[in-house]
Amino acid sequence: MTELRIRTAHASDRDLLAQWAITMAMETEQRHLDRATVRAGIAAGIADPAKARYFIAMDEAVVAGGETIAAPVGTLMLTHEWSDWRNGDWWWIQSVYVTPTHRRRGVFAALYRHVEALARATPGVVGLRLYVEHGNVDAQRTYAALGMDDAGYAVCEAEFER
């Protein structure tokens, strides 16, 4: 018997979250990320909730003898954006990753429902947003099934060299 539990990430999760971020970037965008930069970025986010909040889905299995074994199987990061139009914060879901063996098993839905409940309980939060690659049809279907709609925006960026 297994059950998903969502927990807040800790500093000791940095390397796992960095590996998942690097893997996700390669899977979704064929993009190589610098490990040291990602590790530093995740450490900074975990240390300062004003920058980011990370959540980890734990698959808890009860084995013979009643012992519970928990394994991390997915994550997402939250950031926020002020909206003057709505006089409140949008929470952005980013850095979503689910281990291949746990995909299509409700891990993202559990993470989403967890942060949705937090958002609804937090005064001033006006909703949840995320961006998804145009070609990632499976993810788009998942998000739609959870009640998310295409907001009608394209994301544009100007990335600066550092």
From TrEMBL:
Q: Which residues form the N-acetyltransferase domain?
A: 4-162
Q: Sorted alphabetically, which keywords does the UniProt record give?
A: Transferase
Pfam families annotated for this entry?
Acetyltransf_1
* CDD domains, sorted: NAT_SF
Classification from the root reads: Bacteria, Pseudomonadati, Pseudomonadota, Gammaproteobacteria, Lysobacterales
State whether keyword Transferase applies: yes
Q: Name one GO molecular function term.
A: acyltransferase activity, transferring groups other than amino-acyl groups
Keyword Transferase, does the record have it?
Answer: yes
Going by the entry's taxonomy, the superkingdom of the source organism is recorded as Bacteria
Among SUPFAM superfamilies, the record links this protein to: Acyl-CoA N-acyltransferases (Nat)
The protein's name is GNAT family N-acetyltransferase
Can you name the source organism?
Montanilutibacter psychrotolerans
